[in-house]
Amino acid sequence: MRFFIIISLLFCVLLANGQEEDKLHTRNKKAIELYKEAQSLDHVGNYYKSYNLLLEALKRDNSFDEAVLLTHQVLIKRGELEKALKLYDEFVQGVDQQFKNRMLADAAYALFSEGKYEQAKGLKDQIEGRVEGLDDALFEIVTSSIDYAIQGSTNPRNIDFEKLPAPINNRPQQYFPSITAAGLLVYTVRDNYGRGDENLFFSQKEGDAWSQPLEISKKINSERNEGTASISADGNTLVYTACNAPDGLGSCDLYISYREGNDWSKPRNLGKTVNTLHWESQPSLSQDGRELYFVSARPNGEGGQDIWKSTKQNGKWMEAVNLGPSINTRFDDCSPYIHLNGVNLFFASRGRLGFGGYDLYGTEQVGQGEWSEPRNLGYPINNHRNQVGYTISIDGWAYYSDNLFDGTSSLYRFKLPNDLIPKQLVDYKRGIVLSSADSTPLFSEIYVADIAKDSIRSRTYSDFESGRFNLVLPQVEDANLYVKKRGYLLYKEEVDVLWKSGNEAAIYLRPMKKGEKVILNDILFELNSAELSTKATKELDIVVDFIRDNPEIIVEIGGHTDTSGEEGYNMNLSTERAKSVLNYFIKKGLLKEAFVYKGYGESKPIEAGISPKNRRIEISILDIK
């Protein structure tokens, strides 16, 4: 039996009818007995024995509508569509109209699922009146999709599909790829033609070639199933699915692991805010590893499998939330991929207009928790088969797997058409973090803040051993890069300045010493004012994090003015400016004992004359406990 037929006809299984005995269209008790036994066997997938029992039931009453319909459905599930159509012709005169319509609808959907759109339309157009067991909304999706597929397939996109070359695709089954900004491809391998367990492998893209695929880690792969992984764009965080693990909460749970040099940390179950007693799988991490989209079959969703999201706050994953009816339908929705820009979401669905099976759709976040109307990616990206498990590289290649009729699956890719490329693009930067004292590599946190929008736009960590990092950066006009590590001064530089000469940069962190200025140059004041501006508080929030990371330091808050006022007035004003910063720190929960504040008036200008840059705060390390 062909794989795609089984998958597509899950649609029909969900619609199987089970009337009470007094509502069945026969009075023959033996026929009813045979029908009910056949119905039970159908529910567990024993279509052959079920079929034989149904034939016996029809010998006793050949006008038994429910038995005729179930026989028709069983034949379709067995992949014997021609035989099902002959059965329809044989019994069409003897069954009620709504049962005829249901057989036409089931056969039309089966043809639709094989990509035989015109034949499906021929059957669909014969339907008149009510369809047994199908509500109006469901019938509308089925029939409209047939018309939609005919129209869409006559105007195909110009797509070149490329099978990934050797040494990729060296196993019978490989699927669900995920790729980093640097071209590291992680994917699932299942040996023994689907009868073996699942494990994660990786291969590095080097120019147009790929490295020999290797198991990702002995800490992750086991004798159980580990698969459908998502690796963050910087390559530092991995979320994957593990089934029937000793610490699992349900059948399949999501686990997380972090890169440690050339290996990965011991995986950790993401816990009850993400996992449930039900099935969770198909994760997609945002580029900074702080948003997780995934699929769950838990209740209280929109129906079937739904797409959910959890956000990492203060080191903890928050309670997952359903993406809601703008994304999820009453049927199965799955395979989310959040683009590197954090705005565009691609996913698969069976509950929207499409070409058969699961189709791919794209949407864009237009507000907090709000998404634009999903758009079908079109033909031949979508066809009558299942399109799931896509990932998109930073240079616009869509990587995916294709299941073949012989049970094998291989990895492919294609270049996204221009109209599908997200409007908000991203850039890719490389760098290395070193100590200014001796040039040793440093493990540190690196992040980019969008000054105008007061938001962290990208975050990553440098490697434990080499100090190197990969940074995916959404394109913003006014952004600063910060690097922090305990025991070192906070580093700050404009992104455009840091990488003005190329895509690689060396960043040197200075060890903390007494008298060193911590930062910053954006804690400025209006003329004759000690009131903190919005821009100043954004900068101070960064200082707050720095002080929390280094609780051993005593900090001096130094206030300054320009020369526009009297000397005594300026001294008082500078002191008030320093005090307002101290009060802000205390409001943020920092201890008052960690600070000394002092006004310097106009005595230490950094520019000549009445310059706004002189109306500032400087923060210095007074002592290290």
Automatic annotation (TrEMBL):
Span of the signal peptide: none
Gene3D superfamilies xref list: OmpA-like domain, Tetratricopeptide repeat domain, TolB, C-terminal domain
Stretches of the chain forming a coiled coil according to its record: none
Localization terms from the record: Cell outer membrane
OmpA-like domain sequence ranges: 512-625
Keywords: Cell outer membrane, Membrane
CDD domains cross-referenced by the UniProt entry: OmpA_C-like (cd07185)
The keyword Membrane belongs to this UniProt entry's keyword annotation: yes
Superkingdom to which the source organism belongs: Bacteria
GO terms under cellular component: cell outer membrane
The keyword Iron-sulfur is annotated on this UniProt entry: no
Official protein name in the record: OmpA-like domain-containing protein
Native organism taxonomy: Bacteria, Pseudomonadati, Bacteroidota, Cytophagia, Cytophagales
